[in-house]
Sequence to fold (237 residues):
Amino acid sequence: MDFTADEYARRDADRLREILAGPPVTWVFLGDSITQGVVHTHGHRSYVEHFAERVRGELGRRGDAVINSGVSGATTEDLLPEFHWRAGRFAPDVVFVMFGTNDILAGEDGVRGFRYRLDQIVQRSRDVGATVVLQTPPPVLEDGGRGPRLIALYAEAVREVARDLGVLVVDHAAAWEAAAAEAGRDVAPDGWLDDTFHPGARGHHELTLTLLSAIGVADPTSEVCSLVVDDAVGATA
Fold:
């Protein structure tokens, strides 16, 4: 049976609700250093670790496996030839995908290729039976080949793929932009970034809140969601 993009999105949303109410499953996170969560968390939990605590701990899904296949420095181009090793071999039920922070080093001309490779990642994930959730990368400061305008183009490419293929999208970029505007900042509130493009401990918690809200398991009374992270933890001046 063929599905339209909207039907895919509705089907996947329903599937996630079924997954969260059903037997144990495997969640795989694909991405770069932001997903891997090294160095810039300064010993605090990454967003993937917060997710695991919420799902396996607070929601009581102890049999679930949460696999972090993020690799520092990785791009979508790096991921494709390694897809089986990074995701397929785990027979994932759900695959979360967050790329763009390194892909933007290809510049504006690289957006088309980025969009194509995201499409391929979605298709390969579906081929192994997984429900896919795309995530836009959070904003960055101006630094060499990275900058706010360019990362916005790549974030929009993620949204376009999500719309075209009917994939659920966790829009971190929009959430951070809204928070920055409310705080009177250009890119992100103070303390959310540890350097020009890596989220710090506070930034990772904000990624967690947006992700949990998007899949319908946020709860302000939970310890994960109500955690207060000092804006200054790991933050650079």
Summary: Residues 55 and 61 are 6 Å apart (CA to CA). The longest helix spans residues 148-165. The mean pLDDT is 94.
